[in-house]
Amino acid sequence: MTDLYQLNPAVAAARAILLSQRRHRNTKEGKPLTVREAADRFSASKSAVGRHLKSMKLYGKPDFSDNSRGRPRNLDEAEERAVIAGSE
Description:
Residues 58-88 are annotated as: Disordered. It is built from five helices and no strands. It has 88 residues and is an all-alpha fold. The longest helix is centred in the N-terminal third of the chain and has 19 residues, at 9-27.
């Protein structure tokens, strides 16, 4: 099975932040990794890194969702006809 932490750069960045914060808490050396730095290092968006980081802190797992994010896709012609036929 593929490791999800390596498959998704945003999840890898969130995991790196958690490890950095844990290391900083134990050793007090330097600053922990920030969301912005991790996003730049792993070539991921800050919002995706933040979303996964929040989920990993709260639930212990990344925020993978079956629901698509963003603007919904346009209807194709068959779906549009079905919507119009249902409203008449």
